[in-house]
Design a protein that fits this description.
Two copies of one chain form a homodimer. Chain A is built from eleven helices and 13 strands. Chain A has about 350 residues and is α/β, with parallel strands linked by helices. Chain A has two domains: about 120 residues, 3-Layer(aba) Sandwich (Rossmann fold); about 200 residues, P-loop containing nucleotide triphosphate hydrolases (Rossmann fold). In chain A, helix 1 links the parallel strand 1 and strand 2. Chains A and B meet through helix 7, helix 8, strand 11 and helix 9 of A and helix 7, helix 8, strand 11 and helix 9 of B.
Chain lengths: ~350, ~350
């Protein structure tokens, strides 16, 4: 994984390798931090751990904090993202056990580790660190909307947790492999943990949302690409504000729409049907035109993990024909993904 | 002004009457807090004060903090809103003079009074309070998008500082005068200072933006109206995130578009032309449909303060004919405003 970052913000240095903590979740979609770290920085992941009632697994060996410490782990990372980003009370005894075993704690939740008195006390007692990566930098400016040099690509979703981060990482890797100067720009907890830097867009105060996106992808050389991880969805009744601020501030030249053909309703909110890909393209272009008159949709990224290869290719062919742009699953290398990359770069 | 609030959030009690502080501004548009308080709660405004270089006046008598204290003032309110919401260094000696004179300080800026060490020290020395009204409540929930009972009206602007608050206050007053159970829901510093409560939408963390709007206008009796002060503009490169979160969370039945026919470009950002009213209606309806399938535009609110009465009526007539909905200046009572109110309520 040749992803470079040059965000310029100082963060507490992380302490890999990690033990991934799965909490008490039973829904794999909420473990995207753990899955993302397993998939993109496997060399930093020693194993997994969780409450006894957790039924989700990353496939990594399950082990206690003491066992992980013995295998070299230096921190426990909270690898789940529940609704609201809260640290559950039932997790606290397990997190204390990790501190006692000599691990730092790293979290990307909205709630801060250091706001939990028992964790703060135990970290002090055992000389361990509590690191919250979802803390935005101070003094984010108000967005100006001024055009910046360099090229920008933003992944855009029909929903949350639908492939925006994986697509951005895969495209950034492909751009880099083609010799292009490329930065992956992380906008969420998992991306930040993978890349070692970025902007936690959903934790920024709303007035500064677009400004945060502007400093995330600063003025750059004309041939340079920022590949920016999308957040939320413009159609999401809770998170659309994040998506619009990121879109305006990113001023992307290229968008790639990320979609899961199996999903019919918003994740965790069945009162809302998923928007169509065509509607998502149309609305994103309409809104994005405000800060970049040249914005265009270069293609579609589909999650086809539920399909055999031939069925996946057929699905991609159909979407490409219907929408008039390349469609690919970035987890499947091949001519479809190459066509998507070409479309982004043309 | 018969505006009631029932927000339910506990705030530090304010301490009227006030001395309005104008800082060092020379652009009247940045004094909207001072103007709003003068216009809607004149009984609470003793006078104005500012740096010598400030050229803006509310028309209230200019006086020092000592003079204001002698006339009964109990607090100095920072009545300006500069870009970024910062407390300028050159203001600090004057703010300390107010504390020395026996006044509390009240601010709606993003920056917190209590974060300025000299102010904190002086407030301690003189036994005065520092009150920041732009501090959102704790534990705002993630929005659900679930439909709530009661009727909601949201004012929507083609730009910032273009009449959304005045229009909402005027409509709330008109609804109340017609005997309808009505709450004005403040979403910005000035509205909160006028109403004594509300939600500082631009200071909420982006992930919770729509959730904040949901708790601002809770489930209500079927005939009850919440008249919600709009924020920013969906076309503003810095603030559109605030506007979209507020729109989704407010789930308005009715929108009223606020516009200033003299303004050709965004306030303070001449690189961006103002959107047309028709585009603003269309985009707001398109986005608002996501949380309320019955959303409709009831009319237009135009600032005609630069025109004589006959020219204003002609401008309103033309806008109404062009757009097919009533157009009124809420600062001019008469049949046009009555038609706008009727259109909202029908």
């Amino acid at each position: 994984m040749n992803v470079s970052t040059s965000s310029g913000w100082e963060r507490a240095p992380l302490s890999p390798p990690y033990l991934l903590f799965l909490g008490d979740i039973t829904e794999p979609a909420f473990a995207k931090t753990a899955f993302g770290m397993r998939d993109w920085i496997p060399e930093c992941c020693v194993g997994e751990w969780g409450c006894p009632e957790s039924t989700v697994s990353t496939g990594l060996p399950r082990m206690t904090p003491s066992q992980a410490r013995a295998q070299g782990a230096r921190a426990l990372v909270i690898g789940v993202a529940n609704v609201g980003g809260l640290i559950a009370e039932r997790w606290v005894p397990l997190l204390i056990e990790a501190l006692e075993a000599g691990l730092d704690l790293i979290s990307g939740m909205h709630a801060k580790l250091s706001d939990v008195p028992q964790l703060k006390a135990a970290a002090g007692t055992h000389g361990r660190r509590l690191i919250d990566v979802r803390t935005p930098p101070k003094n984010i400016p108000i967005a100006t909307g001024a055009r910046r040099r360099g090229k920008r690509l933003l992944t855009v979703g029909t929903d949350c947790a639908i492939g925006k981060k994986y697509t951005a990482l895969a495209l950034a890797r492909a751009f880099t492999q083609r010799g292009l100067a490329t930065d992956f720009r992380a906008t969420g907890q998992t991306g930040i943990l993978i890349a070692g830097g970025g902007m936690p867009m959903d934790a920024v105060v709303a007035d500064f949302e677009a400004g945060a996106a502007e400093i995330l992808s600063p003025d750059a050389a004309p041939g340079h690409w920022d590949v920016i991880e999308g957040q939320g969805s413009l159609f999401h009744p809770a998170y659309a504000a994040v998506s619009l601020g990121l879109l305006h501030g990113s001023q992307p030249d290229v968008i790639v729409i990320c979609h899961d053909p199996q999903r019919t309703h918003l994740l965790g909110n069945t009162h809302f049907s998923l928007p169509s890909i065509a509607d998502t393209i149309d609305l994103t272009i309409r809104l994005g035109l405000r800060t970049n008159a040249a914005i265009r949709c270069a293609g579609i990224s589909l999650n086809t993990s539920h399909l055999e290869a031939e069925a996946a290719h057929e699905l991609l062919r159909r979407h490409s024909a219907d929408l008039g742009v390349p469609a690919a699953d970035p987890m499947r290398a091949g001519p479809e993904f190459d066509a998507l990359v070409e479309s982004c770069l043309k």
